[in-house]
Amino acid sequence: MRISSRTIATLAVALLLVTAGCSASSGGDAGGQSTDLVTSAGGGDGGSANDAAAEGETANADSDAQFAQRRELIRTGELRMEVDEFETARDNLTAAVEARGGYVSDTSVSNRGEGNETWSEGRIVLRVPQENYSSMVDAARTEGTVEFEETTTEDVTDQVVDLEARLENLRAERDRLRELYQQANETQDVLAVQRELSDVQTEIERLEGRLQSLEQRVAYSTLTVYLEEPRPEGLYDRAAWYDTGVLAAFLESVSGVGVTLRALVVGIAYATPYLLVFGLPLVGAAVLLYRRVRG
Question: Does the pLDDT of residue 203 top 60, yes or no?
Answer without folding.
Answer: yes
